[in-house]
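1st attempt posting a full record on here, be nice pls
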Amino acid sequence: MFPLGALTRVSVDFGFPIIALVTKRSLEYLVLMKGDESIVSFKATSTHIIK
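the predicted structure (as tokens):
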């Protein structure tokens, strides 16, 4: 996790990286900590693929 002002950059590795920007409020609500197990879901309309 890498703080970026009001957002935090969260990276999850499933053999390939999934990176998300999470609000501070959501981070606190989800009680996310580095090293925690997690499940990732996302809306296809908010997806950005960078090669």
